């Protein structure tokens, strides 16, 4: 009877819980280490510096962990386990706006 009554969970609901086990960082850059991913991390560091926010950034490079967030295009930025950007390098000014809103 109850075979078909199970509620399906999306891949993100299930896997983000596992991804949380890897770090306590509020801010994560997702990407395999390419030039764009490194640039996003640097821009994020600069935005934090300009905002006088002392926050750790975790750079997640494992493809399996990146996929847990449902991200198919990197670089991506995650704040408080919420994907706020993917597939492009944000400018320092764009990042400042996002960080002020999300932190």
TrEMBL record:
Pfam families, per the entry: Thioredoxin_3
Entry's transmembrane regions: none
InterPro entries found in the cross-reference section: Thioredoxin-like_fold, Thioredoxin-like_sf, THIRX-like_proc
Residues annotated as domain Thioredoxin-like fold: 26-100
Residue ranges of coiled coil: none
Domain of life: Bacteria
Gene3D superfamilies in the cross-refs: Glutaredoxin
Entry-linked PANTHER family: THIOREDOXIN (PTHR36450:SF1)
Protein name: Small redox-active disulfide protein 2
Species of origin: Abyssicoccus albus
